[in-house]
Amino acid sequence: MPVRIQEHDFDVSSELAALRAGDKRVGAVATFVGVVRDLNDASQVSTLTLEHYPGMTEKALAQIVEDAKQRWDIYDALVIHRVGPLSPSDQIVLVAVTSAHRGESFAACQFIMDYLKTRAPFWKKEQTPEGERWVEARASDEDAAARW
Amino acid sequence: MVRIVYLARLRDAFGKSAEQVDLPGDVGTVAALLTWLRTRGGVWAHELASGRAVRVAVNHDVAQATTPIGHDDEVALFPPVTGG
């Protein structure tokens, strides 16, 4: 299953081992881990709550992984995205891609993250000393996705 | 009947996460649905005003203004996404 939405944390090391288990063609594994920061737009964040749109999320992420496989010569890809309440320093998202050589997996990993940021239906709500607020989308994320 | 799902900030603003509606016969596209919802006034007119960034999905696929909406479809309204 290349796409998982879950509340609980993930162990990067065991996920990477499982992703490439038994595939001796693999010469490169590129990985991205997104982490909750304690400061956003000059406010201290105590809790970051992630919600998503069940059904569409899985479909959108599977399509992004499929697009990456069409564009680059990669063997496999894994996306894990957490939902629910998270604290600063918690892991939010894991993207891992295997290929024969590093160029393909580096590029595909970045592509998947850029597309995830702008196309997968997740939303963040921050709890700060000033109260709760929904995180606004950033134009820079649209720019990052548009370059592919 | 069409099921409309509201997510994230829009769910908070409208005070509901979903509703089943019987659409008037002339409401057959995403654009027409948004226009129809705006006629409810108040927070509906405010949040769905043209110029506000509202994204729409029909049956879990990203939709455009011209995307048709029909019987038993699930239409989701949400703000721009902020995951990752």
What is this structure's SSE topology?
The complex is a heterodimer of chains A (148) and B (84).
Chain A: E1 3-6, H1 12-20, E2 28-35, E3 39-40, E4 43-44, E5 47-52, H2 56-71, E6 74-82, E7 84-86, E8 91-99, H3 102-119, E9 122-128, E10 131-134, H4 139-146
Parallel strand pairs in A: 1-6
Antiparallel strand pairs in A: 2-8, 3-4, 5-7, 5-9, 6-8, 9-10
Helix pairs in contact in A: 2-3, 3-4
Chain B: E1 2-6, H1 9-14, E2 18-21, H2 30-38, H3 42-47, E3 55-58, E4 61-62, E5 74-78
Parallel strand pairs in B: 1-5
Antiparallel strand pairs in B: 1-2, 3-4, 3-5
Quick rundown:
The complex is a heterodimer of chains A (148) and B (84). By secondary structure, chain A is an alpha+beta fold. Chain A has helices at 12-20, 56-71, 102-119, 139-146; strands at residues 3-6, 28-35, 39-40, 43-44, 47-52, 74-82, 84-86, 91-99, 122-128, 131-134.
What are its keywords?
heterodimer, A: 148 residues, alpha+beta, four-stranded mixed β-sheet, 4 helices, globular, B: 84 residues, Ubiquitin-like (UB roll), five-stranded mixed β-sheet, 3 helices, 24% strand
Can you walk through the features of this model?
The complex is a heterodimer of chains A (148) and B (84). Chain A has helices spanning 12-20, 56-71, 102-119, 139-146, and strands at residues 3-6, 28-35, 39-40, 43-44, 47-52, 74-82, 84-86, 91-99, 122-128, 131-134. Chain A is an alpha+beta fold and 148 residues long. Chain A has a 4-stranded mixed sheet, with helices on both faces. A 4-stranded antiparallel sheet of chain A has the order 7-5-9-10, with no helix packed on it. Chain A has a two-stranded antiparallel ribbon with strand order 3-4. In chain A, helix 2 (56-71) packs antiparallel against helix 3 and helix 3 crosses helix 4. Chain A is globular. The mean pLDDT of chain A is 95. By secondary structure, chain B is an alpha+beta fold. Chain B contains 3 helices and 5 strands, in the order E-H-E-H-H-E-E-E. Chain B has a 5-stranded mixed sheet with strand order 2-1-5-3-4. In chain B, a hairpin with a 2-residue loop joins strand 3 and strand 4 (61-62). The model of chain B has no long low-confidence stretch (mean pLDDT 96). The A-B interface holds A 34, 50-53, 55-56, 59-60, 81, 92-93, 113, 116-125, 134-137 and B 5, 7-9, 12, 53, 57, 60-62, 76, 78-84.
